[in-house]
Amino acid sequence: QSVLTQPPSVSGAPGQRVTISCTGTSSTIGTSYAVHWYQQLPGTAPKLLIYGNNYRPSGVPDRFSGSKSGTSASLAISGLQAEDEADYYCQSYDSSLSGYVFGTGTKVTVL
Amino acid sequence: QVQLVESGGGVVQPGRSLRLSCAATRFTFSSSVMHWVRQAPGKGLEWVAVIWYDGSEQYYADSVKGRFTISRDNYRNTLYLQMNSLRTEDTAVYYCVRELEGLDYWGQGTLVTVSS
Question: Which of B1, B2, B45, B52 has the highest number of chain A CBs within 10 A, making it the mutation to test binding with A?
Fold first, then answer.
């Protein structure tokens, strides 16, 4: 079961900035384990978007940024574009379960 | 470019078994931690299992513990998932995933449908 909570959906007009929250616990995001973010376009496999809380893999635009504080993390998308319409998932590690965990997922809609 | 190609999915009856394979190419498989992640139709991502680079340790989600076994053959550069006592709720696309900094490369997935 998911132990990281995300809003089901967020939306914004082209060019706007949107943020997606990822709420965990003291055994997940509240630990030293990193938070990672994934983008899943319709009908495709997920793609790593942010790793290590706030690092972008090569090829990911700098419009995407991540942060982590306490038991929560956030993904920000600035200068929203139509191609950013997708599902976004956070992911970390749960020390109480000795397993990896994903967020519940957030659908981003560009108005 | 890293390639991960899953195979072995299909339709299976509840209670039966299935083995998934993942062929890995264009990276040093024997040095990589590998995972299986699944996604039920219309649902979110669910982590299934992880195996250390040398196969020395494996960990599982509670939902599959005792029924699924992750393994690897570093000579054949292949990852496996043996799935026993399958349930209808195991119906999902199963992804083979490499971990480096985050889960950085994903296969295209193979669909497993458990239905009578």
Answer: B45
Q: Determine the distance in angstroms separating the CA of A15 from the nearest CA of chain B, rounded to an integer.
A: 27
Q: Could you tell me which chain B residue has the CA closest to the CA of A34?
A: B102
pLDDT category of residue A2 using cuts at 50, 70 and 90: low
pLDDT of residue A30: 84
- In the block, tokens 């998934």 appear at B20
Using an 8 Å Cβ cutoff, are B65 and B84 in contact? no
Q: Are B102 and A52 within 8 A, CB to CB?
A: yes
Q: Which residues of B3-20 are buried (b: 16+ CB within 10 A; e: fewer)?
A: ebebeebeebeeeeebeb
pLDDT in tens, A62-80: 999 999 999 999 999 999 9
Residue A36 has pLDDT above 70, yes or no: yes
Q: Across the interface, do A45 and B108 touch by the CB < 8 Å criterion?
A: yes
Res A60 pLDDT > 60: yes
Q: How near does any CA of chain A get to the CA of B56, in Å?
A: 16
